[in-house]
Specification:
The structure holds two protein chains of two kinds.
Chain A lengths: L1 H21 L16 H5 L6 H19 L4 H21 L1 H4 L10 H24 L5 H25 L6
Chain B lengths: L1 H9 L1 H20 L13 H14 L4 H21 L19 E11 L5 E6 L12 E3 L4 E8 L4 E8 L4 E5 L5 E5 L7 E8 L9 E4 L11 E10 L5 E8 L8 E7 L2 H8 L1
Antiparallel strand pairs in B: 1-2, 1-12, 2-5, 3-4, 3-12, 4-5, 6-7, 6-9, 7-8, 8-11, 9-10, 10-11
Chain lengths: 168, 270
């Protein structure tokens, strides 16, 4: 248990640094960045205390906001997906989530992908509508959400597959 | 009372969620209004320090281009000097009464630069310690970059011209008409100049400069050239697309402009 906590703390720090130092400056095709710091929220333990989880996600988002000078958009988006994660988990994994036996490292690829897609889409819709914050730019919001989501989903799946733990 | 407490305990997760969401929304709304986004910003020593460290590594990759650019600027300045008839520059003595220039320049290094969002900010590695204060203009050798919005001890945040909150007075080089420079968030090379009256005679390729009507920028700093223009709906103003001289995605060093008269002018205005 203690080793797991340490792992999550290290993951938290590494993901933030990776995001702000490298991935915020990718600007693929001029404006696309993958936001893979949400892997922390995706991989948080199923049985974590919900209040604690909400607060940690909020802090995670706020740290990214501090680095990218974006007010509170990442904090809002992270808090939202942290709050809705149980719903996404239940709708994707069904019974195995109810019995708290699901582990993201040993579920089927299709289910994992579906879970990632759900979470990333929710996060990005929230993120870009708050970042642009102007309904006359709704096409721009849709465009950014769509392409950034694709980019983030691909990157996230790559990371998840590459760093899969085979100890189970 | 018991029921209220029970309700609170039962819904504590949702309540916590709503509180956190409210805080982040408040921060977001605050960041969308000009001169307010000051609570969460990258000028603190932690994020500033990390960006500084990161940039001290990535600096080396652009040294060659940076050198070329400096040489070009030197060449340009030397040509200007010889045109003024001053072959050698005296470093010993400047008569500050007869040659009192109202602006001084401080160089700084850009350690973080955004250009892909709607509201872009730039972080530089000088702050109050080098007397860089809010409302100072920031330029490069080619043209304007933005205005200092927030400064800490060692770092300052610049509100880039590529920011939906930025409004800068700008005008035509060949006449005195002026308007305000804004950005519509689409192309980081093109900004928009609004409210130039239709009496102005403009052509594609005309130069747009700052017009010195505020204390932030001196008159005559380059901004860009006219890429295209159209009249607005009731045909009283031009809407002009301006192609920037600066490549906003590639800024190495900048100069912050301090106006010596700013306090005097402000006290007159109030």
């Amino acid at each position: 248990m203690n080793r797991d906590t340490l792992l999550h703390i290290i993951r938290f720090i590494v993901l933030i640094l990776l995001q702000v130092i490298v991935l915020n400056h990718v600007n693929f095709l001029g404006y696309l960045n993958p936001y893979i710091y949400i892997i922390f929220i995706l991989l948080a333990p199923i049985n974590i205390n919900r209040s604690l989880f909400l607060v940690i996600s909020f802090i995670l988002g706020l740290t990214i906001d501090m680095f990218s000078d974006s007010g509170g958009v990442h904090a809002a988006a992270s808090t939202v997906i942290a709050f809705f994660r149980p719903i996404a988990l239940r709708s994707v994994f069904g019974l195995s989530y109810e019995f708290q036996t699901v582990k993201l490292s040993n579920v089927r690829f299709g289910e994992q992908l579906l879970y990632v897609i759900l979470m990333v889409l929710t996060h990005h819709i929230m993120l870009f509508s708050l970042e642009i914050f102007n309904f006359s730019h709704i096409l721009l919001i849709a465009k950014k959400t769509l392409f950034s989501s694709l980019f983030t989903i691909v990157t996230t799946m790559l990371v998840l597959v590459l760093f899969r733990r085979n100890n189970s | 009372m018991q029921q209220i407490i029970n309700f609170l305990i039962k819904n504590k997760h949702s309540l916590l969620f709503l509180i956190l969401l409210f805080i982040s929304l408040a921060l977001t709304i605050q960041s969308h209004s000009y001169h307010r986004g000051k609570i969460v910003s990258s000028t603190n020593f932690f994020s500033g320090g990390i960006y500084n460290w990161q940039h001290s590594i990535s600096d080396y990759f652009s040294l060659k281009d940076e050198n070329k650019r400096l040489l070009k600027e030197n060449e340009h300045l030397r040509n200007q000097l010889s045109a003024l008839g001053m072959e050698s520059v005296s470093t010993k003595y400047v008569d500050s009464i007869s040659f009192n220039k109202p602006y001084t320049y401080t160089k700084a290094r850009v350690i973080k630069n955004d250009y892909s969002k709607i509201d872009n900010y730039i972080l530089i590695d000088k702050g109050q310690r080098d007397s860089i204060l809010p409302d100072m203009g920031v330029i490069t050798d080619k043209g304007i970059i933005g205005i200092v919005e927030n400064s800490s001890k060692n770092y300052s945040r610049i509100i880039s011209i590529l920011n939906s909150n930025s409004r800068i007075n700008a005008g035509l080089k060949k006449s005195n008409q002026y308007g305000s420079l804004v950005w519509n968030g689409k192309d980081p090379n093109i900004v928009q100049l609004e409210t130039i009256p239709r009496q102005a005679i403009i052509r594609e390729g005309d130069t747009i400069i700052t017009n010195g009507r505020s204390t932030i920028f001196p008159k005559g700093i380059g901004i860009g050239t006219i890429a295209s223009y159209s009249l607005n709906q009731n045909k009283s103003y031009y809407l002009i697309d301006v192609k920037l001289f600066n490549d906003m995605s590639n800024i190495g060093f900048v100069y912050a402009i301090k106006s010596k008269d700013v306090d005097e002018i402000k006290s007159l205005e109030n």
